[in-house]
């Protein structure tokens, strides 16, 4: 199977639509980590993503009859644009079914390549179901994003280019993982020609379907999938990709939101390219690999797999980069509520940059301050800072890894309610579409009162919302039944220390 896949990669038709992309050196990263770090620039494809390779190669295998009827796909992102371009190059009708929450920039890009766009449903599953209905009705050929051997072979041409462009030693190649099409094709080619090169998959920690499959020994469906890295937000690894790469992938690394944001910044500083979060995923994994193994003097290659991001999302990414580099500590510190306390606190932290300071009067004796403080990367300096504050008599709560604190509390003003009451607090991910809030409110019982609400638009398909509710005692045990019926992802935050310290 491995040899047959490599032959398919060598015979793949991709360059009628795709281009051979360069490998860019990353001099700043290389000096910082004492390794030669190289970035394969798939963001330079005509659709700013590698996806055009697999889409075009799959279409190159269509019969004349299939081409005459047209092709269809369900996609909210890069596969849609890749297929639209491939169809335009071949003069074939293309229909793309996208969820209604798809950002307008992606809808416009697909239409710009000449494809017909149908917006259906609030999530990918509804769009995929409608696409299959249209296949039955019109005889379109469905072009899958990853679970197809010709798609896999098209994506594998990325590895073919890397080994041709860099003939010297390569210690490891880091590849982003969503459904597995890219890593399956690349792993097959690399291991067949250069088995000494490590192939390392990188996944977002909240959509790690490959890691789950390898641990279980079979494909599994994740209960929930994070949406921050939309390009790899897949609940189940592809069947064909997994069968190919099961014995070819040396390691799988997972990274979090902050680490991806930091990698976006790293790519920009070395190449001036603005990648999407999933595009920077493999670099985030490369950095984590160096930190965990202490690798030095090696040649390490990662893939900038795409650059299709909304401009208004960059603000949120920028906010999280310092945390991703572990250069900022977010702390809740209790200081005495009296004149001179803040000055004394600043004297205690020494010559460190205060990056953020939030405070509102709430108590005559104590003040809870939300403070960001610059620290050295690695985590040791942050622990030393916390230890110094505790030694000086300050109660400290470390919120650096607290999502509620980073997404909501740091942006909330107004302090605590004047009168005492009981509320339950939940954090939700709302689809970014008209009517999403009304759908949420409609499912709540009429006697529930909204006591807290915070929302910020991050330029993504989903918005992050914090909601406080006054719930009658009789409904307390059934709260989450109502939320399950709505279908939005949620987390209970009533006991979160960030909420207790600043909002309760």
From TrEMBL:
Pfam families: PALP (PF00291), Thr_dehydrat_C (PF00585)
Enzyme Commission number(s): 4.3.1.19
Domain ACT-like: residue ranges: 329-401, 424-495
Gene3D superfamilies reported for this sequence: 3.40.50.1100, Biosynthetic Threonine Deaminase, Domain 3
Alphabetized SUPFAM superfamilies for the sequence: ACT-like, Tryptophan synthase beta subunit-like PLP-dependent enzymes
Pathway field: Amino-acid biosynthesis; L-isoleucine biosynthesis; 2-oxobutanoate from L-threonine: step 1/1
Cofactors, names only: pyridoxal 5'-phosphate
Role played: Catalyzes the anaerobic formation of alpha-ketobutyrate and ammonia from threonine in a two-step reaction. The first step involved a dehydration of threonine and a production of enamine intermediates (aminocrotonate), which tautomerizes to its imine form (iminobutyrate). Both intermediates are unstable and short-lived. The second step is the nonenzymatic hydrolysis of the enamine/imine intermediates to form 2-ketobutyrate and free ammonia. In the low water environment of the cell, the second step is accelerated by RidA.
Name this polypeptide is given: L-threonine dehydratase
Lineage of the species this protein comes from: Bacteria, Pseudomonadati, Pseudomonadota, Gammaproteobacteria, Oceanospirillales
